[in-house]
């Protein structure tokens, strides 16, 4: 099935790409979650609009990505969340929470879809988080999760 990606999907493509995937993957996963729309001739017009929006948001060059990486790695991020007595969180820390904490700590504005958590953060303490700024540039960031 031909689809048009509306978000970046790792291993498949970026927003605005027209890709061919298995019917079940598109019908049961990508389309219901809003990661893609079905390809139509009228949808080709949407592709240009999606690509223009992506071009505005993305970091164009490796030099820009390295500059943002330097600013990110210099930021100390503390995230206050609700936790139980044993240090377990009520829920987990999401990429959106990390992006908001980076912004609140005075760091650059980071898209939540660029934040990669190795595994769900469900405990207090220091954790490593990756931010994919460019296809070739990844910033490693330390996040301190503390009880609120």
From TrEMBL:
One of its GO terms (cellular component) is ribosome. This is Large ribosomal subunit protein bL9. InterPro entries: Ribosomal_bL9, Ribosomal_bL9/RNase_H1_N, Ribosomal_bL9_bac/chp, Ribosomal_bL9_C, Ribosomal_bL9_C_sf, Ribosomal_bL9_N, Ribosomal_bL9_N_sf. Keywords: Ribonucleoprotein, Ribosomal protein, RNA-binding, rRNA-binding. Pfam families: Ribosomal_L9_C, Ribosomal_L9_N. Coiled coil: none annotated. It comes from the Bacteria. Residues 13-40 form the Ribosomal protein L9 domain. It comes from Streptomyces sirii. Binds to the 23S rRNA. The keyword Ribosomal protein applies. Belongs to the bacterial ribosomal protein bL9 family.
